[in-house]
Structures are given as structure tokens and as C-alpha cells.
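Attaching the record inline, Q. Sequence:
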Amino acid sequence: MSLRGLEFDVDAVVLDIEGTTSATGFVVDVLYPYSRSRFGALLSERSGDPDVARAIAQVREELGEPDADPARIEKALNTWLDEDRKATPLKTLQGVIWSEGFACGDLVSHFYDDVVPRLRAWHAAGVRLYVYSSGSVAAQRAWFASSPEGDLLPLVSGLYDTENAGPKQEPESYGRIAEAAGIAPDRLLFLSDRPGELDAARAAGWHAVGIRRPGEPYFEPGVGDHAAAGAFDEITISTSRSTT
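Structure, as predicted:
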């Protein structure tokens, strides 16, 4: 980062979603109730689907109850939802439900006004964009494909979650993403509202900026000793070809 401000010479930007590109309130107030109302039907009617079956097995393993029936699993999912627990099987099943909700038009994702123009500018300048969210890859794909401004997936080079990368507060997860993307850690910039995630990215050798938006859960506590921005247009990315 230069002394002039939030300027970075990197090859790629990795994006958190909730509280960073998009409002936490939308996820909590719209998406969570949508998934809660559909867990029961999903578990009882589609337990043979590969993604659903894998998630059911993971819930049973986490509960230590290998014979847990659909009602017990649904109760566990709702408890984890109330706790806002980043449990992989919960996120998998939410992803299945949300993907179908976006596909049928029940849901349209939310992005802060400063985000999409900046993502398009960075992409046009040759900066690669990735997503790393606790939401499943399926949910991320549906989210970016169903924005108010149309399909944003062509802007994104890769999607990572807690299943294919690992927990977001562990440096090793960021090492896996760097390796999978084929980008040196010091050529990656991570944007998130959560200080624990920023700490882990920095420990893995990445650049990191905390996004602080009024009304978000982490706005008041702040982002520790990390550089902070209130919006994406406060951040400048330099590439070998151009600056935007």
C-alpha cells in the first residue's frame, strides 16, 4: 500500500460478500427466512440428491447422531441458523435452496451501489476477481448471476467457500486459494468486514482492507489495525497495464 492512500499493486482482488459487497440485513432478513421455510421439504423430498445427501451426512456427523431423522436435522439447521453458525452443511443446503429461488425469480441479490461499477472497472483493467464467502459456491454463483444489474459471473474468475478452501479465519485457507488461483500471496488483496478474516489473510501474506459500512455489524467495532475503506471506490488497484 502506498503512503498516498489505499493503492495496491496486485493481480487479483478476493471478495467477501456479507457486509462487504452486500448488506448483511438482506441475508438475515430475506435469505435466512427463505431457507428456513424450505429445509423440511428439501430434507424429506430430496434426500437422495448428491449435495443434499452429503450435507445430511455432515449434519449427522457433527451432531454425533448417525441415525438422526429429517426432523432432527431440520431442528439442528434452524438452531445453527439462529446462531449464525458458519456450518458447511447448513451453507450447502441454503445454497441449494437459494439457487433455486434465484433461478425462479423469487430472489434477487443485493449489492451496495459502489460495488458493481468498481468490479467492472477492475475487471476491465485486467484485475482478476474472486469470491471467498462462508456461503456455499452454489449460493455465490446464484448471488452473482442474479444481481439487480444482471449476471455478474463473467466478472469472476473463481469462487471459494469453507468446503473447498477452509474456514475463513485460518491462514491456511488463504494459502489454498492462492495456490488454486496460481497467484503469489503478495499479489492478492482481500476485502472483508471481519477483522478475524483480515488477520488470517494477512498472516498468509496477502494484502487486506477492511470494509466499514454504517449499519453493518462490524462497523462500530472496526477492523483492528487494518487499512479501512467505507466503499470500494476508495480503493485503487494498479496493474501493469492501467490504473483504476
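The chain has a mean pLDDT of 94. The radius of gyration is 18 Å.

More tomorrow.
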